[in-house]
Amino acid sequence: MHSPELFLKDVSGFLGGYYAAIAIANAIAALILWQKKNQPGWALVWTVFAGVMMVLCGLALTGSPSLVPALPAAVRAAVNALSGPVIYTLGTTALLVILFVFRKFFVQPMVAWTILNVSLLAMGLSMADANFASIVMKPDNVPIVGLVFLLAFFTWVATKQAVVNDERIARGEPPMEKLDDEKVLVWPDLVYTELICMVAVSAFLLAWAILLQAPLEEPASSVKTPNPSKAPWYFLGLQEMLVYFDPWYAGVVLPSLVIFGLMAIPYLDYNKKGNGYYSIAERKFGYLTFQFGFLELWITLIILGTFLRGPNWNFFGPFEYWSPYKVEVLNNVDLPQMFWVNLLDRPLPRPPQGAGALTQVGYILLREAPGLLIMGAYLVLLPPLLAVTIFRGFFKKMGFIRYMVMMNLMLLMLTLPLKMILRWTVNLKYIISIPEFSLNF
Amino acid sequence: MAIGETIRNSQIWKSIFRHPMPLDRRNRIVVMLTNFFLHLHPVSIKKQGIALSFTWCMGGVTFFLFLVETVTGVLLMFYYRPTLEWAYNDILALRDVTSLGILRELHRWGAHAMVITTWLHMYRVFLTGSYKPPREFNWVIGVILLLLTLLLSFTGYLLPWDQLAIWAITVGSNMARATPILGYEGPGQQLLSIGGIDMITDGSDARFGLLGARFVGEETLNRFYVLHCIAIPLAVALLLAIHFWRVRKDGGISGPL
Ligand code: HEM
């Protein structure tokens, strides 16, 4: 760790450039709003904002601890104290729900631009914190920051068009995409677009490669285990699931189900509408299921696993120092323990000494009966039950096989959030725990 | 432009390009039909299908990044030997000694970018409902491409042979140890035993198959090198050819009926 002064000297150049870039982007936005869109009010707002950013740029460039703009220490401490896996997961879910429900409001360009500016500003202020910066600016973590902003941007692009289309469809008009129905020649219209895209991507990649050096740590050593040991970033969602499940499920079964489930989507989604244009209203169920799986269960878990999990896979707030000595008390209990010992006040069923193999299996089944019954009911009884109640429409339209495949995929996907909730509320470790066959669930 | 004119009228030029400059409508059509690279595209296309707001050009960007990775990857192969003795030192030399010292950066950041753009491409295909009939199977091919992209990135991650590399691969491949039935710590591995002898041990399970050894070592480096540089890229190239062919055969970029 260097001293705070040295750290700020190191990042001041970067931060100065960062604020200057925001200022330039806002100045351009203001110019467009004023000249082309005839919105002088907003143009003024962003001009002022650009000015403020230029001031921050100047302050950042000083590199002095008293001048570089940063979040107050009290705020940082409060954020650290408040954050934890529960708040994080519930918070991101709530955020996505709010964005979805009020999408008409959030897709307005000025609202989106405001949100972008606020997040960029928060990012800049956070970057002046040594702990935050040391994680976010790790070379291999930089792409994830990019991913978050890109996903936000493209979700906005898509939702904006979906909102317009849904309104048009409600009025009985065709989606916007239909308006551009006439054919154009691929040369020049498409070929030139592709050329420009290639030049832009090349320029971007070159700049990235020049500005940021690829990481190279010490030579590999099979005896010096780093703490934390992390998989590549795109698998960190899976690694985060290891908190809740054993590797056979989190690392093998669930990823296989993700791949299989993705492949099955076109064969399960019988809804003919919404093919070839952005729409939400016409395919709400499919849309929400996919967004929940992709944004919440895949992306936010990657962010959590990358930025907020430190040594020993402990949770760390965004401004917290990753101390390897942090201790988290784990007092998680298995369901058989809860049922036999805590609830019935009896010892766990155990086979008598020297019992035959079959008897032993019988005792295991007895011991695990509560968990086996719950899982049996969840996977075997729930699908038919839902088929005659809330999902009756699905069942009729999909037929037996497709309905069963879909329900099982959905239920297995939901095992993750359900297990999370059980862990947070009743400290449940395993529902079924058969160490004799390495089968813990 | 007398020189340009002369070149374009020469026998050599005309033997390569079978059409004059595509400035008028006729030649703009001819160029699409006679150029090998351009014949991937149709001659004309619905305006909506090429709108940036619709496709985000994400599939195209992903493909371009794949090409960038291929070129920079081949160049890296000139400098890199996949052995315990050389792997790390070659990477070190790439940074410190080689001219044009951003080759590794281009390849690494390009790889990260390709993972991201593949996800974004899938995202847009989902959001426009473009996996619906008749494009179901092209979506399936896409999912396999997604898996292969991740595997490409994963196998490449090991090659620098530094601490970051071997521990990331160790953590990642430890999962295979827990494969049900086929991993030696997985549930039900006891089932595969013949006459009381376990068939699934740490020297014969799924993880061993992946690593070629009981832990991440030189066999793994060799195995991942071959997968990374030859096997997976070839598979991706083949599937991309089918993917693009199917985009055309399924009626071009999707759009409202
Ligand atoms: C290596 C990765 C991939 C490459 C290079 C690639 C490339 C492309 C390209 C160039 C297109 C033309 C339209 C566009 O640019 O959007 C396309 C279309 C398509 N891709 Fe991919 N793709 C890849 C992965 C995927 C994945 C992961 C999926 C889905 C899971 C997918 C599903 C599709 C489908 C269904 C279409 C047709 C879309 C339409 O007609 O609107 N592809 N792909």
What does this structure look like?
The complex is a heterodimer of chains A (441) and B (257). Chain A has helices at 4-35, 40-62, 73-82, 85-101, 103-106, 109-127, 130-136, 142-170, 186-211, 236-241, 247-268, 284-307, 335-343, 357-367, 369-388, 392-426, and strands at residues 183-185, 433-434, 439-440. By secondary structure, chain A is mostly helical. Chain A has a domain at 335-440. Chain A has 16 helices and three strands. Chain A starts with a helix and ends with a strand. The radius of gyration of chain A is 27 Å and the shape is globular. Chain B is an all-alpha fold. Chain B has one domain: Cytochrome Bc1 Complex, Chain C, CATH 1.20.810. Chain B is 61% helix and 3% strand. Chain B has eleven helices and three strands; from the N terminus they run αααβααααααββαα. Chain B has helices at residues 2-9, 11-16, 25-34, 52-55, 58-79, 87-96, 103-127, 136-158, 163-174, 206-211, 218-249, and strands at 44-46, 193-194, 197-198. The chains are: A mainly alpha (441), B mainly alpha (257). Chains A and B meet through α8, β1, α9, α11 and α12 of A and α3, β1, α4, α5 and α6 of B. Bound molecules: protoporphyrin IX containing FE (HEM).
Strands of chain B, total number: 3
- Ligand list: protoporphyrin IX containing FE
Structural class given helices, strands, pairing of chain B?
mainly alpha
Biggest interface, residues from each chain: A-B, 93 and 99 residues
Low-pLDDT regions of chain B: none
What does the oligomeric state look like here? Answer: heterodimer
Q: How many strands of chain A?
A: 3
Q: Shape of chain A, please?
A: globular
Mean pLDDT of chain A: 93
Summarize the helix and strand pattern of chain A as letters.
HHHHHHHHEHHHHHHHHEE
CATH architecture annotation name of chain B: Up-down Bundle
Distance linking N and C termini of chain A: 41 Å
Largest sheet of chain B: 2 strands, antiparallel
Alpha-carbon Rg of chain B, integer: 24 Å
Describe the main β-sheet of chain A briefly: 2 strands, antiparallel
Query: CATH H-level name of chain B... which superfamily?
Result: Cytochrome Bc1 Complex, Chain C
At the fold tier of CATH, the topology name of chain B is Cytochrome Bc1 Complex, Chain C
